[in-house]
Design goal:
Helix content is 66%, strand content 0%. The chain is mainly α. The chain has one domain (7-59).
Length: 68
């Protein structure tokens, strides 16, 4: 797996994760939407840590710098 996510993209995803977890923890998002928020947070965390996004790979997007 080659990395296809740049550092800014990864940071933005981690900020979104923090926001989703905070919304769930405070009870703002509950029930089915809370579960969806936590699943999305888990996926964003995993893709941010690995630097690889399968959806980006399918559509041919790369946000990382090309090393020469």
């Amino acid at each position: 797996m080659k990395k296809n996510m740049g550092s800014i993209d990864r940071i933005i995803r981690l900020v979104v994760v923090a926001a989703l977890v905070a919304l769930y923890a405070t009870g703002t998002v509950t029930s089915l939407w809370g579960t969806i928020a936590l699943v999305a947070a888990g996926i964003f965390t995993l893709t941010s840590l690995t630097g690889f996004c399968p959806i980006y790979a399918m559509i041919g997007v790369k946000t990382c710098r090309v090393s020469s």
